[in-house]
Amino acid sequence: MNEGELLRPPYPADLLADLHAGALDEEVAERLWPLVREDSDAMAVLDALDAVQERLRGLADADADAPGEPMPAEVAMRLDDAVLGAVRAHKRRRRMFAGAVVGAAAAVVAVVAVVVVGGADSSTDGTAPVTPIAVGPDDAAALEPDTLRSLVGSTDLGPLSDDRALADCLAANGIDPAGPVLGSKTIEYGDRDAVVLLVPGEVPPQLTALVVGTDCDATHPETLYVTSIG
Amino acid sequence: MRIFGGIAKIAVSDAELLAAHAAGDDQAFATLLRRHYDHLWKVARRTSYSPEDAADALQEALLSAHRTASSFRADAAVRSWLHTIVVNACLDRIRRNRARPTVPLYLEDGDEPRTERNHIAEVETALDVEAALEALPDDQRVAVVTVDIEGYSIREAARRLGVPEGTVKSRCARGRYKLAVLLGDLQEPGNRT
């Protein structure tokens, strides 16, 4: 299309749809918008596209009630089998290795204590930790209750700065994404880049501090450490 | 242990089923998921290119949900949690399929399937939005579903789908325009004066 065609109505519908979706080159869009606003036919197309988006958003709201095509029985059976299989396999593994895990966890605590605390291995007495910690933070003090509490009000979300990324990560960790994040800080946890998230605990004024890997998303909770404060 | 398996029809909350699952009830998690099967199927179908992909993505999503169920707190909505996991699994699957060189699942942008015009012609203009969505080419439908229904930013949708942001925008543009035609808000392409 040459410039003369572009600047004169009638404007092609696909051009208007691209303009509406922000798909046009910025410079072209800037020149086109004032012209399009003067053209009632073009504005009718844009209004119709707005209306479509509105209806689509309405679909999201209606999702809970709107009946759809039911899941085919063969798909449901396949999912039942897969899920039940996973549940039972998980249980079997847990039973078989329960003893070994307790021993291994104790060993990990010993190693972590040596690395993090710097030789203070007297802190391990052979019992398993309440919270499973695979590796410790580089700075053990970062997870002290007082340090965590001091994070309230500070925001340093790193890769979780995107609202949706944060909401997905919280949801994957079983935390209501609609609730507040009271504080956050990027840290290094072992050899991982991680983020500490401070959220309200189950009983106020308790707080829950959650350390997640920076790749945390809806399907990968990346939980590295969870603790309650207060 | 089997706490709820035999009495699944009695009103039990999602949170109680999760607790039963955590307590070792073999059936509780499957019962919980089954409650949401139809909803999740609908979500997976509209966010996938084929029923087979939808079923595969759903299976991946539910197994992933099982792996993370122990960290899921009862005060978060189970349905929203599952919904998000399923959408992401579908988008991830589309991205992975794109990376497979031997199986071209759909035509390049700009080359719409040949049957599409006939398909649109067969669809009455008074269709509801869901039915109209089904009439869109897969890449446009998934873009519109991801951005307009699921509310992902263009950037996040592009990242998930493994395509440039401009591609997501133009797929949305074409998809929305076709929906407006299908829903009777605009005239068909070529009929404008």
Q: In total, how many beta strands of chain B?
A: 0
Oligomeric category: heterodimer
* Terminal residue distance of chain B: 70 Å
Percent of residues in helices of chain A: 40-55%
CATH topology of the largest domain in chain A: Nuclear Transport Factor 2, Chain: A
Q: Strand percentage of chain A, roughly?
A: 5-15%
Please give the radius of gyration of chain B in angstroms: 20 Å
Q: Please, what is the average pLDDT of chain A?
A: 77
Q: Give a quick account of the main beta sheet of chain B: strands, pairing sense, barrel closure.
A: none
Number of domains of chain A: 3
Q: Would you mind describing this structure in some detail?
A:
The complex is a heterodimer of chains A (230) and B (193). By secondary structure, chain A is of the alpha+beta class. Helices cover 48% and strands 13% of the residues of chain A. Chain A contains 7 helices and 4 strands; from the N terminus they run αααααααββββ. Chain A has helices at 3-7, 13-21, 26-37, 40-62, 73-118, 145-149, 163-172; strands at residues 183-189, 192-200, 207-213, 223-229. In chain A, β2 and β3 form a beta hairpin. Residues 110-135 of chain A have low confidence and may be disordered. Chain B has a domain at 110-193: Orthogonal Bundle (Arc Repressor Mutant, subunit A). Chain B is built from 10 helices and no strands. Chain B has helices at 14-22, 28-35, 37-46, 51-68, 78-99, 116-122, 129-134, 138-149, 154-161, 165-182. In chain B, α1 packs antiparallel against α2 and α3 packs parallel to α5. The radius of gyration of chain B is 20 Å and the shape is elongated. Residues 1-9 and 101-127 of chain B have low confidence and may be disordered. Classes of the chains: A alpha+beta (230), B mainly alpha (193). Chains A and B meet through α2, α4, α5 and α7 of A and α2, α3, α4, α5 and α8 of B.
